[in-house]
Amino acid sequence: MILHIRVRAVALAMALIATACGPAPEPTSPPLPTAAALTPTVAAPTETAVPAVIATEAATALPPTIAPTATEAAVLNPLTGLPIQDPGVLARPPLAIKIAHFPRAVRAAQAGLSQADNVFEVYAEGGVTRFNAIFWSRTPERVGNVRSARLLDAILMDAYQALLVTSGSSTGTMDRLREDAERYQRVIAEATDYGGCPVLCREASATLSANKLFTEPAAVWAIAAERELAGTPTFGGYAFDAAVPEGTPITTVHLDWQLNNTIAEWRYDANLGRYWRWIDSGDTGPGNPALVQHIDTLTGEPLGADNIVMIIVPHVPSNIVVDDGVAKQFSYDVPLTGTGPARVFRDGVLVTGTWVRDAGKGELPRFIDDNGRPIALKPGVTWFAVYATDSPETLNTETLTFQSRFKAPGL
Fold it and tell me: Among 34, 249, 329, 397, which one is most buried in terms of CB atoms within 10 A?
């Protein structure tokens, strides 16, 4: 049964209910594996020829579950489809925290990504990506390294009714955020007078801060409540179903953001039913660079996900110039409104279809298969990869591999 979860505010208690398209919902996640059942597994071989996936006990950590009573169903997180222990956390606004991925040295300081409910990996410029990580149900003690916003972040703020935590942005991007006064008050940045610990902790001067700016989500939520920056979100949740859908068997998802340089690869672990993330190491050689497993330095956990969703959207060069101190480049407009192609990977299969998103606050994208039916996500964490139209794709059913290269306009 596919569940569509919506969160609403109610008076006084701010209690939330999960609604289903049918009878009263049951928890949609399968039983979580016990520690004894966790054993390292070998990923399907790929052309990158790197070591087997490291599946550790810590790597399977998901939000705690609760067993519903005979008269009370579990409360489900609309962003993950998983039952949560403290439904009260859903009364706070999500945090959309901007996290850098380049230069490669910043990865040694990336903290908290394993605790996000959803993560968007988005092309910035110059062949590099940046994350917009959505935190809601869990409260990591520290998240970073925090970097500057891009134009798409205004749309993601609206979709998730979120607070945007960022180091700042170019003048043009900040002007875009400022166009909506209600949205702009939810921008947590030094440029909006939120500098200083614990909201934004800069551990070095601005000129040395590529990997030195962090935030404490608990502090951001506290100041948001104190200043009444945002209330309980009212967005409709994603559709979830634990049943494995029909699709093309694919166990390796290879996403090339810049030819043979900026690479993310997701490898499916059939024993644990999750994908593990691998990234370019910077070690060059013939063909693609060697890949290493992506680790959250906060927890020491490999980064994993239950769904990988490619959202294919036009990338239009804007007149906004981004100056990173090395080069000046134009920022991209990414109009995530309307519809476009989508690729959903879950349970080791690929389901093709389209994404649909209406304009407005609280409007999350929906996913429809080629037969016009909703594509349900597997209950759990979802990583989104926002790709450009005309990005070439290769589907190899013999090696169970999907490959795509991001194609920036003009390339």
Answer: 329
